[in-house]
Amino acid sequence: LFRIAQEALRNVKKHSRATEVAIRLKFTQSRVKLTVSDNGRGFEPPDMLSDLVAEGKLGLIGMQERTRLLNGKLLVKSGLGRGTTVVVEVADIG
């Protein structure tokens, strides 16, 4: 999860022009949920994140792959002028 958060923050710095970013980590009995949200310029996510490979945008693909290795779920919510939120939910293995 650390590397996913790190990449999300790298994307905020590199692309978003955000003035604020929030990182939340929520624990339940069986799940861990990481949320990284910014108030930046946002973007229109493609239907399939794999479409970003052709554009050389590999940050979200890396997050998706790390999430897959943890048997988790990745959700990217964004829109032009609305900021971006990345949510990763995985089973709590601790």
Please characterize this protein's 3D structure:
Its EC number is 2.7.13.3. It holds the Pfam family HATPase_c. With 94 residues, the chain is an alpha+beta fold. The chain has one domain (2-91): Histidine kinase-like ATPase, C-terminal domain (Heat Shock Protein 90, 2-Layer Sandwich), CATH 3.30.565.10. It is built from two helices and four strands, in the order H-E-E-H-E-E. Helix 1 packs antiparallel against helix 2 (59-69). It is globular. The two termini are 13 Å apart. 19% of the residues are buried. The mean pLDDT is 93.
Topology:
Blueprint: H1 2-16, E1 21-27, E2 31-38, H2 59-69, E3 73-78, E4 84-91
Antiparallel strand pairs: 1-2, 2-4, 3-4
